[in-house]
Amino acid sequence: MPHLTLPAPAKLNLFLHIVGRRPDGYHELQTLFQFLDYGDELIFEPRGDDQIRIEPALPGVSLENNLIWKAAEQLRKEVGGTLPGYTIHCDKRLPMGGGLGGGSSNAATTLVALNRLWGLHIPVDRLAEIGLSLGADVPVFVRGHAAWAEGVGERLTPSSPPEHWYLVLKPECEVSTALIFGHEGLTRHSPRIKIAPAFEGDDPRYRNDCQSLVCKLYPEVARALDWLGQFTSAKLTGTGACIFGRFPTESEALEILARKPSGIKGFVAKAVNLSPLTVRLNELN
Known about the structure:
The protein is an alpha+beta fold. Helix content is 29%, strand content 28%. Helix 1 (67-79) packs parallel to helix 2.
């Protein structure tokens, strides 16, 4: 089979409300996912055996805990039998522990790519179900359209929020999602809302319920939000640590990026409602 290069884009949670906790410990959410035209890139290179290898290895992450490898193994289990091996090269641009969905996006791109390369023809609904077993954010990346999400994040309704320019900043810390969702100080009873027909990010009804707790536990995030808040409405995405702010134009966002405090990393990207992964697959078909 040929080489295949595909994007694994970032996502933003334009808001994130926690509306309850299930008996199994998982949280009930309401959120709005939108993609960015920025992310990782995966290159699938055929091997002469049946092994899945990932290059380079992620620091501090074993092969068996890498979501790329886990996605490939889940797909193998789905169909059984021997399948050709691939070396998957990951050009990692998205920070770990950033709330941008990098690991979930990598998993989704792997599912979609190997479904194609192995000629499995698994329908997208089933791919999304397999993705859910890997992480709550994986299905939205598999389906490839901005979406209003409920449940643990798997009940998706396609949505088309405005496609703004965003400045994304990553403070010098990694936020533990498990720590935030397990913390007694987390707000868990926001009232349920109906899907917004036209989402605008400055509407005070839409917030990130994790933000105040993350700021308390990770002061680096609080400082970054205060700094970016001088120029635009700044929010946390997911459980962080990345924060984002909307700008009318790319040039305005780049101007503020150039003034960011030392030690903070960042980038400017365009929000898109159709995933760059879906766009690329459409080009290949």
